[in-house]
């Protein structure tokens, strides 16, 4: 009996040691003193680079508040969006914070926090198409050329819902928008918060913003599968900032005030 009890205790001790060694990204960040977050800083107003080369934005400010709550520094690791999930899997950073939509396909590969905001896909169209194109359905013919950023839900939606149109994607949003501005494409498909800024900042009076979202897209933080301790911390943090006014203050700074635009190139 003592032999079996000893073996059982040894097994429990080993299990505890394994769990301690794999406590999760948040615990690792606290021990390291730095929270490393992968992001592609091209998504206005969530994460973007200002004229001084600093990464700023709505999601960045939420992550700064999270790092402060953890008592650590925030390190933003600039990563191309199409390679951001593989980079997480190879430990280039602790979590993804890059305006990522929680899709079922991605959820098979990642754990996600609760959403910190919900957005939807909208359209920027050529000004001369105003009245002709009133929704994404009107674009779904071989007569039109559409664009978006590669690796995003904009691309997924374009290929799923507007599959008959000709599609060409770009590595960043601005290149794709300029394709429409310059008449090389008819429409740009992307999240509403980006398009509401891009229509004026990049559009040069040549674009029309069809602002009614036609998809439901919750944005959330992505972590490796099985990291439930980190998900628990992040979800509780999000609940806290929603209740204490921090979230509203950050949200209003980026979505109700346009002062930050002066800081952009």
From TrEMBL:
It is found in: Cell envelope. Keywords: Signal. One of its GO terms (cellular component) is membrane. GO terms for molecular function: ligand-gated monoatomic ion channel activity. It comes from the Bacteria. Residues 1-23 form the signal peptide. Residues 34-257 form the Ionotropic glutamate receptor C-terminal domain. InterPro entries: Iontro_rcpt_C, SBP_3_CS, Solute-binding_3/MltF_N. Pfam families: SBP_bac_3. Residues 34-258 form the Solute-binding protein family 3/N-terminal domain. PANTHER family: GLUTAMINE-BINDING PERIPLASMIC PROTEIN (PTHR35936:SF38), MEMBRANE-BOUND LYTIC MUREIN TRANSGLYCOSYLASE F (PTHR35936). Belongs to the bacterial solute-binding protein 3 family. This is Amino acid ABC transporter substrate-binding protein.
């Amino acid at each position: 009996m003592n032999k079996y009890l000893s073996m059982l205790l040894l097994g429990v001790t080993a299990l505890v040691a394994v769990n301690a060694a794999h406590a999760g990204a948040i615990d690792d960040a606290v021990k390291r003193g730095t929270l490393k977050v992968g992001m592609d800083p091209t998504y206005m107003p969530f994460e973007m680079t200002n004229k001084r080369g600093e990464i700023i934005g709505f999601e960045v400010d939420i992550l700064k508040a999270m790092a402060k709550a953890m008592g650590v520094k925030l390190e933003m690791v600039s990563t191309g969006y199409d390679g951001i999930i593989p980079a997480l899997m190879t430990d280039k950073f602790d979590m993804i914070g890059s305006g990522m939509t929680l899709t079922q396909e991605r959820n098979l590969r990642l754990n996600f926090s609760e959403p910190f905001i919900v957005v939807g896909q909208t359209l920027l169209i050529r000004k001369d198409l105003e009245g002709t194109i009133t929704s994404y359905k009107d674009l779904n013919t071989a007569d039109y050329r559409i664009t978006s950023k590669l690796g995003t839900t904009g691309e997924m939606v374009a290929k799923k819902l507007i599959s008959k149109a000709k599609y060409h994607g770009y590595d960043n949003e601005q290149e794709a928008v300029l394709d429409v501005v310059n008449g090389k494409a008819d429409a740009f498909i992307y999240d509403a918060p980006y398009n509401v800024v891009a229509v004026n900042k990049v559009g040069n009076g040549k674009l029309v913003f069809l602002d009614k979202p036609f998809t439901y897209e919750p944005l959330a933080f992505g972590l490796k599968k099985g990291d439930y301790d980190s998900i628990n911390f992040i979800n509780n943090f999000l609940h806290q900032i929603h209740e204490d006014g921090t979230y509203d203050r950050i949200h209003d700074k980026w979505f109700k005030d346009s002062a930050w635009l002066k800081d952009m190139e």
